[in-house]
Amino acid sequence: MKILVTGGAGFIGSAVVRHIINNTQDSVVNVDKLTYAGNLESLTEVSKNGRYAFEQVDICDREALNRVFKEHKPDTVMHLAAESHVDRSIDGPAAFIETNIVGTYVLLEATRSYWNELDSERKSAFRFHHISTDEVYGDLVGTDDLFTEETSYEPSSPYSASKASSDHLVRAWLRTYGLPTLVTNCSNNYGPYHFPEKLIPLMILNALEGKALPVYGDGMQIRDWLFVEDHARALYKVVTEGKVGETYNIGGHNEKANIEVVNTICDLLEELRTTKPEGVRHYNDLITYVKDRPGHDVRYAIDASKIERELGWKPEETFESGIRKTVEWYLNNQEWWSRVLDGSYTGERFGSN
Predict the structure, then answer these.
(1) What is the mean pLDDT of residues 40-52?
(2) Which residue among 14, 72, 168, 304 is buried most deeply as judged by most CB within 10 Å?
(3) pLDDT per position as a tens digit, 30-42
(4) One of 134, 255, 297, 317 is an active-site residue; which one?
(5) Residue 347: strand, helix, or coil
(6) pTM here?
(7) Spatial separation of the C-alpha atoms in residues 336 and 312, rounded to whole Å
(8) Which domains does the chain have, with CATH numbers?
(9) How far is CA 295 from CA 217, 292, 298, 335, in A?
(10) Which one from 135, 229, 230, 303 is the annotated catalytic residue?
């Protein structure tokens, strides 16, 4: 099978590409615009593989997408390309509307045009898998409530609203045009190759440099943490075995308050990096509480029983095992994150946007 992966140079996308190339016989066409969060250095281990191809293409560019479909003739699309950082969406929502909504529309239309021309056997086997987020559901008030596939949408931020919009478009293209689509909504991902603006890598790298560890509000916002390689396995399971028209929630079964995550990182660094930056006695002394994010959701938690029941997937990593692997990866891969921080991977210094 040949799989067209949009956003394959991003954090989750690159994990999906590495998983497919390293663990299956399928081929990948990676379509990525290479914005600030797209990093081909995350794909170094597979970039020379004969089953991997890269196309630097914006999903809003219909003509370029038509060419990619015509040249590569994929059997499946996995759509991960998206603007994904909540803070950036608050500061500048336009890019999120353009990429997440308009880009998804353009990709759906390019896919539909291509799909309509396939012979009956390839047409029936074709899949369009849209990868989304649990943030479309808003937040949970009760301590025991969980997001299910039937939870109503109540997005809180420009980011989550744009992803909710793209989810609706994908389902409409199934209902109206018969395009064989699937949707997955995942909890917070973490792991190797994560761009340093997100909570876990930001805390690790700030601590290593003796910088403040900024925690929003009281730090009691709860997230369900999913190790990115577990997520990649789940996504491949859905696109190869999932039922057309279905939605599958993917979670890590690891609910943690943000402050608990930060303290865990500090404890691991105390163990693994005993030589501290000048002036730092304990890493958790760097924790600094800052003004909360506007519209900050209080709690997310995924009910992932459907994907386990119907497709046999469940996470392999606990939070304890996954966060240790993550901290160790950042300690052992300074070259990767240093090139992100100084902008040499794109020529654009991190934080300049």
Answers:
(1) 97
(2) 14
(3) 999 999 889 999 9
(4) 134
(5) coil
(6) 0.94
(7) 34
(8) 2-193+226-253+295-318 (3.40.50.720)
(9) 12, 9, 9, 36
(10) 135
Q: How confident is the model at residue 351 (pLDDT cuts 50, 70, 90)?
A: very low
User: Is 134 designated active site?
Assistant: yes
**Per-residue pLDDT tens for 95-154?**
999 999 999 999 999 999 999 999 999 999 999 999 999 999 998 876 678 999 999 999
159: annotated active-site residue: yes
Q: Are 68 and 32 in contact (CB under 8 A)?
A: no
How does DSSP assign 114-182, residue by residue? Answer: HHHTS-HHHHHH-EEEEEEEGGGG----SSS--B-TTPPP---SHHHHHHHHHHHHHHHHHHHH---EE
Among the options 159, 248, 300, 330, which is catalytic? Answer: 159
Q: How far apart are CA 116 and CA 136, in angstroms?
A: 30
The sign of the CA dihedral 273, 277, 281, 285 is: negative
